[in-house]
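Quick one - inputs below.
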Amino acid sequence: MPKVGMEPLRRDALIRACIAEIGEAGSLSVTVGRIAARAGVSPALAHHYFGSKDRILLAAMRHILREFGLTVRLGLARANDPEARVRAIVRASFSPEQFSRECIASWLAFYVLAQTSPEAARLLRVYAERLDSNLVHGLRPLVGESDARRIAQGLASMIDGFYIRCALQDRAPDGAGAEAAVNDYLDLCLAREHAA
Amino acid sequence: MPKVGMEPLRRDALIRACIAEIGEAGSLSVTVGRIAARAGVSPALAHHYFGSKDRILLAAMRHILREFGLTVRLGLARANDPEARVRAIVRASFSPEQFSRECIASWLAFYVLAQTSPEAARLLRVYAERLDSNLVHGLRPLVGESDARRIAQGLASMIDGFYIRCALQDRAPDGAGAEAAVNDYLDLCLAREHAA
Amino acid sequence: MPKVGMEPLRRDALIRACIAEIGEAGSLSVTVGRIAARAGVSPALAHHYFGSKDRILLAAMRHILREFGLTVRLGLARANDPEARVRAIVRASFSPEQFSRECIASWLAFYVLAQTSPEAARLLRVYAERLDSNLVHGLRPLVGESDARRIAQGLASMIDGFYIRCALQDRAPDGAGAEAAVNDYLDLCLAREHAA
Amino acid sequence: MPKVGMEPLRRDALIRACIAEIGEAGSLSVTVGRIAARAGVSPALAHHYFGSKDRILLAAMRHILREFGLTVRLGLARANDPEARVRAIVRASFSPEQFSRECIASWLAFYVLAQTSPEAARLLRVYAERLDSNLVHGLRPLVGESDARRIAQGLASMIDGFYIRCALQDRAPDGAGAEAAVNDYLDLCLAREHAA
DNA sequence: AATGAATGAGTTTTCATTCAT
DNA sequence: GATGAATGAAAACTCATTCAT
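Output:
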C-alpha cells in the first residue's frame, strides 16, 4: 500500500537496518539484500533510494557520527567549566547508546571502510578533528596549549582503544569501567599541572 | 618440476603474501587468487596447503601474533627491572616492524575477523591475556596488584588506540610520538605511586 | 495540476525524448526512465500513455518514418519530370533533417528492433516498399520496367549504405558528398540508357 | 573431465557461440549466460577467459572481421588484373559464408556496438580503411586516383546497404542478386572511363 | 491526469572451492 | 607436488512494470 512521503521513512529504516546488520555481522560484509529485508523492503528499493551499497554504508556512517556528535553536544551543554567539558566528552563516549555492541562494531567497520573509501576517510577525519578540537578547547585553560594537544591525543587514543578492546573481549571492562580508567588518566594529567 | 620439502616454503610465502595483501587492501577482502598470485603459486595450491581461505587468514594472524610476541620477548630480555619491562613492552608495540602500515592494517582486519571466527577471537584473547599478564607482571612491584591491573588496561587500550588512529589519520603521531605519549601516561602513574 | 488535453502533448514529448535518447545512446538500450525524465514526466506516465517500452519505440519509429515520408513527398511535389522525381528522393534522403546523427542512429536502432519485433519489421517493410515504388515509378519511364527495378534496388542500397557508414565513420562523406555519389551512380545508369 | 590446453578451444567455442547468439537475437542483447550455455560451459568460465562481456563481444567482432579479411585475401590471391581484384572483393562480400544471416546480424550489431565502444569503433574503422584501400588500389589503374576514391566509396556503401537490406527484408535480392547489382554499377563506372 | 512507491525478474560479475591430470 | 579447468553460489545492480493515491 504505497503512500506519499515514504522516502525519509525508508531511508531511515534502511540506515538503521544497515547499522543493525553491521552490529550483528561485526563487519562490512553485509549484503544489500539482508539490509533491505531487515528494513522490510526489497533490495531494489534500497538501490532506488541510495544508489549503491557504498552510499548506504556512508549514510549509516554519517548517522553514527551524527548521533555521537549529538550525545557529545548534549553533554557539553550541561558542563559549566573546562574540566567538566572534558569529562563530558569522555562520558559521552561511554554512554550506553554509544558504547553498545552495535555502535562499536560499526565504528570498527567504518575504520576499515575508511581504508578504501576516500569519502569514509574524510568523514572519519572530520569527526576526529572535531573531537580533538573539543578536547583541546577544554584542556587548554587547564594545562596550556602544548600539553593540551598531547593529552587530547592520549585521551582520544585511550577511548578508541577501549572501544575496540570491548568490541572483542569479554574480559574488558564495561562502559563504566572504561570511563573510570580514562578519567583516572585525566586526573593524573590535571594533578601534575597543579603540582607544577 | 615439483620439489621435495617445498611445503614450509610455500606456506610461508603464502602467509607473507596474505599479510601483504591485507596491508594493501586495508581489510580482509583479499582473494585467495591474489594471495596465491603474489606468492607465485596457483590458488589451488593455497587450498591444498591450508584447506580454506579462513585457515590462511588464521595462519597469517598467528604469524603476526608470533612476530609481535618475539619482539616483546626480545625487549623483555634486555630489561633489568620491572619498570624497564613495562617500557620494553611499550617500545616493542611501536617498533618500526610492528607499527607499520601492513601490520596495523592486519591488526584491524583481525579484530574484524574475530567478530565472526571463534578461532580468531581465541587467538586475539590469548594474545591480549599474555600482554596484560606481562604488563601486570611489570607493574605489580611498582604500584601494587589492583593499580597494576587498572594501569595495564589503560596502557593496552592507549596502545591499541594509537594503532587504529595511525592506521587512518595522517595527523596522528608517528610511532615515536605515540610511544612518548604512552610513556608519559606511564610516568604519571608511577609518579603518583611515589608521591603516595 | 493535471490538465485536460495533455495527452497528445505528452505523447509527442515522449516520442521526441525517445528519439533524442536513441540518438545519444546510439542504440535501443535506452531506458524508459531516461526517456520519461527527458520528457519531463514520470516513467509511470510513459507507460500510462504507451503501455510498454516497445510501444514507445514503435511510436518513435513511426514518427521517424512519417517525417521521412513527408520530406520525400515535399520534394516530389516540386518535381516536374520522372528524373527530377528520382533526384528528389535522393535529395530528401540526404537532407539535413534526415541525415542527422539522431536520425541515422534511430534508423540503425530500428533495423535492429525489426529483427525481433514483427511490427517493427512490418513498418520497415512498408517504408521500403513505398520508397522502392517511388523510385521505380520515376525510373520506369526512363529505363524501362526491369532496369528500373534493378536500379531502384541499387540506389536504395547505396543510400542505406551511406547512412550506416556516416553513422560511424568520420572519414565518410557528409550529406552533400553522399548525395553527389548517389547522383553520379544515377547519371551512369541514365547515360547508358541513352546510349543504348 | 578437465584437460590441459582447453583455453584456445573454449575461447573459440565461446566466440562462435556468441556469434550464433547474436545471429539468433539479431542484436547485442545476448547474455553471457546464453553464450556460455551454447558453448557448453558455465558463465563463470566465460568471464574467466574473457574478463567481461564486452571483451567477448569484441573478440567475436575481431573473429568476424578476420574471417572476412581472409575471404577477401583468398579472392585477391586468384585475381590477375586490377579489375579482377575489385570484382574479387565484391564477390567475397557476398560469398555464402559472409552473406549469411548470422554474419549480417553480427555486422549490424557491431555497427551498434561501435557507437558506444571506442575499441569496437576502432576495429570497424580499421576494417573500413583496409577495404577502401583495397578497392582504391584495384580501381586506380582503371579510372585514375580521384575517380577511384569516389567509386570505392560508392561500391562499399552499396555493399553495406545490401547487407542491412538483406538482414531485414525477404524481398531483397539474395547474395548473387546483390553481387550482380554491385557489379553492374562497377560495369557502368568502368565503361564510362573507356568511353572518355 | 499524474506520480511516488515498490518490486520481480534478470544480468553481469566475483570468488572460494573442487577435481582430474 | 602442483596446476589448469571448471563451477555453484551469491553479490550488486538495473529496469520495465504495476499500483494506490
